[in-house]
Specification:
Distance between the termini: 52 Å
Largest sheet: 7 strands, mixed
Radius of gyration: 19 Å
Order of helices and strands: EHEEHEHHEEHEEE
Number of strands: 9
Strand content: 15-25%
Shape: globular
Length: 200
Amino acid sequence: GVQTCALPIFFYGVRKFGKSTLAADMPRPIFIDPTHATEHLHVARYPDPASGVWTWTDVLEAIDDLLASDHKFKTFVIEDVGDLEQIIWRHMFDNVPISDKEGKATNIESYGYGKGYKIANQFWRLLTARLDDLRIKRKMNIILLGHSAIQTQKNPSGLDYDTYQPAIYKEAAGILGANCDVIGFCTFDDAAVTKNRKTI
């Protein structure tokens, strides 16, 4: 039969919609917020590391802390995956050399066409595995927040069209989306009203 379980959820959408506020209304949330986007909310959050700059190790240690420690939190929120992508890339530049001869990368394209993104996918898969542990072992909901970007969708059966997609590399978005039971797109309900032959 149906079993009650914690949910993995991915909310992405336009800026200033209120995604953080939406996540704050989940049961007993605690946030990772590297860019202080939740300062206006009365929520629990992990403090910034001593350096003031979040690292990939800091993110994993926060998850491990929730796995091992005694706490009453029911929801873990990452605000947001675009910032997390930059954290992953910085970790790669410092720890994954281009080659034995070429040394450190300075940007994601330093690894060669498309190769940097493939390397980053390994870190995204590690993240989703850790989050699954948190969800299953500690029964915590997982909320991933992200911004959206307009991208052209290739349509093999007709004309291409524009669509909203998460504002991270498409394969990373696919890895996160495949691991979530709910994917929600958040936007404002805008409408134009015609009155006396004028659109207002």
